[in-house]
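Sorry to interrupt, but I need a hand with the structure work. Could you write out one complete protein record for me, on any chain you like? Just paste the record in under my message, thanks.

. . .
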Amino acid sequence: MELPEFDAVALAYADGVLEVTLNRPETRNALTLAMVEQIERVCEQVASREEVRAMVLRGAGGHFCAGADLREVMAGGLQPARDGTDPIEVSSRRFGTMLRKVGRVPAVVIAVCEGSVLGGGFGLVCVSDIALAHETAKFGLPETRRGLPPAQIAPFVVERVGLTQARRLCLTGAEFRGSEARQLGIVHDTFGDEDELARKLAETVARVRECAPHANAVTKAIVLDAARQDMDAVLDAAARQFAGCARGAEAPEGISAFLQKRKAKWAVAENNEE
């Protein structure tokens, strides 16, 4: 798989797994507009590549992401542009668009949380499918302590942990460690060191490989739509998608593999992927 070259995001691909590393360690990977745009471009590319089974998000230098780069946010000044547009509003909304694109990637998105997982970084975790956190990782939503709302993040926090917990976290600027993040359901598992992370990450990817790629993508779309649409509309669409999958190439192979007590073709790791 040919990968684009970015300055704020580093990419590595092997055996169906695309590792996306936020690469501004000198700022604890604080999010700039350039980084947001580069993450969006990665998501757009992955959306059309079914061979990418999982996308792993992590940060360089021992930190996941410390949130938005506030120096950049304020660099343009506080006055709207002469054409009436507000650059701060535009950049804020762009971040929300990026979060939605990450959440909608057909591949399974796995977030690896280490060091600082704050603000926008917290938002990225909330749109992941699976999240693993170091036991000592520091989570929090410090925006209100800076005089700002977690505007584009809050809706995804509500989806992740529910309204009651989201209100507490957002309105107190709470900070907590990876073990509490697991109790809250923000992350699904914790690890204590790099060896344990490698083992749990490998186990997670192995489980993903057991699932048919197209069926997984369709399932993810159904799950995401369930909370946002009328339930009858969700079920009608899901029935059409089920029928489409049943008539596709994956279901006959998956059912045959089950009956023959063998692994399906997609569950066999491809060691020669480019």
User: Anything to note?
Assistant: The chain has two domains: 9-208, 212-267.
